Amino acid sequence: MDASGEQERMPRFWRAFKVSREEIDGEIDRLKAIARPANGRRLSHIVHPQSTTNSITPGIRASIEVIMPGEVVELPATNASSVRICIEGRGEARIDNKAFEVGRLDTWSTPNMAVQTYANRGDAPHVRLMFSDAPLLEHLHALYVSDGTAAEAPAAEGEGEPAGHQRHPMADFVHSLPTGGGALKTYHAFIDPEVVEQTALLWRWGEGKAFLNDMDKDTPDLRAAIIAMYWNPSTGRTHGSTNTITAWMSGGVDPNWTGRKWDMARSHRHNVTALNYAVAGNWKTIVEREEILWGPGDLVLTAPAWAAHSNGRFDREAYTFAIQDNALLGALNGTIMQEYVNRPPLHLGARPGFEA
Questions:
Q1: How far apart are CA 191 and CA 57, in angstroms?
Q2: H or E segment at 286?
Q3: Which of 110, 164, 183, 307 is most buried, taking the most CB atoms under 10 A from its CB?
């Protein structure tokens, strides 16, 4: 295909999209009422009208999971990562060698290839929203889902990893080339890279809420004082909850609230995609001149990639949970943000950023 002389174009962004609390609650009730599936998993995807891959954004899948009282669900290991938030009831999670109990609005991450078991020991349904990067891996034809047999199959003679594995010295060998600034490494580096441990992390709602409420709200840009990132330290400067997904909690009590108007942030845009699930309070989003009102229990695609948007609230105390793919964009060194629409975009992480 000859593309000589053609100008590269940015893809058209997906339109903003709202799923109401009534729609989500209706699907939760349906999942509660069905017979227990063979694999035990009561699951529905929330799909954007423009998606062809059961996703809510091009790279994120949003799902509703329900576990009824007394049920235990084991999930197959997959190389997709995910973030979950509990929206109803309580449950027990065992992810690899970590076990914890979760309640309403607690959030946790699941690293790639983790062994997961969830149980509901209570007398009320346990309901979660799950956000996964599986669509991205599917697009690359790189998604792996274990069928449970790999761990059971004996290794053939001469195969398998010996006990007490030691990395080969050549795995860290670097040959710097005399010109050009590049370097060479051996195949050992690819097959045995340095390990960065990934474990499930838990963010308790009560602790995050207290942090937001204690932040100084006397700032010219209130948005800078009401957003907290659910950060996984192993992701470093890419600022993720997993290596691709970043969860946030926004809001808090505003002591300066007058109650006379919407408190809207300035319009801005970025190639990071953002979803919001309202926890408390009334919210408004303006996306490319389309106005969307949303409140507790609504899930909204508030920021399609590169769409100009502004978010605001109309309550003294309001909270919203957000999911973005900025960790992925950060790892790709491809995050572009235009915080001021009359100024040039910034290449975040590769160039200095801006003051909030």
A1: 32
A2: strand 283-287
A3: 110
Backbone angles phi, psi at 163, to 5 degrees: -65, 145
Buried b (16+ CB within 10 A) or exposed e, 214-243: eeebeeeebbebbbbbbbbeebeebbbbbb
End-to-end CA separation in angstroms for the chain: 45
Give the pairing of strands 98-102 and 91-95: antiparallel
Q: Which amino acid is at 118?
A: Y
- pLDDT tens per residue across span 174-220: 999 999 999 999 999 999 999 899 999 999 999 999 999 998 877 76
| Three-class SS state of 305 | coil
pLDDT score at 152: 47
Q: Within 13 Å and on the Cβ side, how many CA atoms surround 49?
A: 7
Could you give the count of Cα atoms lying within 13 Å of 310 in the half-sphere of its Cβ? 14
176 alpha carbon, distance to own chain's centre: 37
Residue pLDDT, tens place only, 238-297 = 999 999 999 999 999 888 787 777 778 888 999 999 999 999 999 999 999 899 999 999
Q: Write the burial class of residue 259 (CB in 10 Å: 0-12 exposed, 13-18 middle, 19+ buried).
A: exposed
pLDDT band of 150, cuts 50, 70, 90: low
> How far apart are the C-alpha atoms of 73 and 94, rounded to whole Å?
10
User: What is the Rg, in whole angstroms, of the alpha carbon atoms belonging to the chain?
Assistant: 22
Per-residue CA distances from 25 to 22, 33, 127, 129, 153 (Å): 5, 12, 10, 12, 42
